[in-house]
Design goal:
By secondary structure, the chain is mostly helical. Helix content is 46%, strand content 0%. The protein starts with 26 loop residues before the first helix and ends with a helix.
Length: 63
Amino acid sequence: MKNTSSETVMGRPRIGVSRQVKITLPEWDWVEIEQTIDRREYPSMAAYFRYLHEKEQSLRKNE
């Protein structure tokens, strides 16, 4: 990937627009989410929430 100054850009390609979101959940939910990530079912908290969003979008399309 090249930027406007013709320098090579390192790192992962962007998958979308980043926005900061604050979510309040009960502590036990956070513990379960963190354990899920620790078991490497998802590589990160962001990946976990992206999966949930994609799953919800898929369910809406199938209605």
